[in-house]
């Protein structure tokens, strides 16, 4: 079998060019998990690619340890499905007009979670964990890494910001998903799952399992075929949070963009029976997607796909990317302003004026006039 990397003569140098042309000039770090900043180097950019023939190309440190965060949802969903739970007992599977951390179950308009990749669904899937270590063992098996464990600092930070998720867990119990005395237990399973550490290589092994219908590099079955279909289907519609449809249109056009991201800066992309890749870049857009990963996807979706694709005209893609970068820049400035204000409030008895704070903010911002030049560079490469 000849994989897509061989078919299209894609080299290490080709992917290095993709990485260099996709360096983000904007984006921020999630401020509700401050411990994440302690385990990163802001300059780290990583890309790992594999195809059906087992060919692999790695750019950067693919063994770097990161917090799995929402990327682990694909395995948590798979775990519940592998327990022979019917998918509609876990959640519905339609994208809903609510933020990813809200759900119709809170309003009582649904008896199950609204979508397979939002937080209510994640908590719902966690309810099928029978023993505390069962899910960790499952992740270790799928990633072929017996060292994977919980990052305790991240777990403690997540646990201290759980008000909304506690409400979701209580709503699931009220709907009869599990007894009320399990509200805390299930939420703890959920929190520990999001706090597991993995590497880019581990994430790529998850992608290989999904790409190959449940089989690993050695073609040994680890997941059921239908499990992979259900998981990839959920990734198609809600894998990139509230930006899923917009990014899918910009990057893939009429094709589904099976991808999953997390505020851990990882994005996993799966093209079934063709290729899979993982990106790591430490600047996020307003919904929690890695800006580097999104920009890489524009080029990689062409490089790692077959030619018979119906996509938007390149000029239209460029305009959409410009708008995406501008939106991200506006969000980054607002977040920076909040953090500067918070720092000023904590360190000064006499508060600075809004004008002084804005001047500080402007000194941190990227140059808006460079956005079009930057987009042109991405596409030219």
What would you note in describing this structure?
The protein is an alpha+beta fold and 381 residues long. Among the domains are: 70-194, 3-Layer(aba) Sandwich (Beta-lactamase), CATH 3.40.710; 315-380, no CATH class. Helix content is 49%, strand content 9%. The chain has 17 helices and 7 strands. The protein has helices at 4-7, 12-21, 73-82, 87-90, 104-107, 119-126, 134-143, 152-159, 163-174, 183-194, 200-211, 225-238, 244-252, 291-303, 314-347, 354-364, 371-380, and strands spanning 45-51, 56-59, 65-67, 197-199, 259-261, 266-271, 275-281. It has a 5-stranded antiparallel beta sheet with strand order 2-1-7-6-5, sandwiched between helices. Strand 1 and strand 2 form a beta hairpin. Helix 13 runs parallel beside helix 14 and helix 15 packs across helix 16 (354-364). The radius of gyration is 21 Å and the shape is globular. The two termini are 29 Å apart.
In terms of topology, how is this protein built?
Layout: H1 4-7, H2 12-21, E1 45-51, E2 56-59, E3 65-67, H3 73-82, H4 87-90, H5 104-107, H6 119-126, H7 134-143, H8 152-159, H9 163-174, H10 183-194, E4 197-199, H11 200-211, H12 225-238, H13 244-252, E5 259-261, E6 266-271, E7 275-281, H14 291-303, H15 314-347, H16 354-364, H17 371-380
Antiparallel strand pairs: 1-2, 1-7, 3-4, 5-6, 6-7
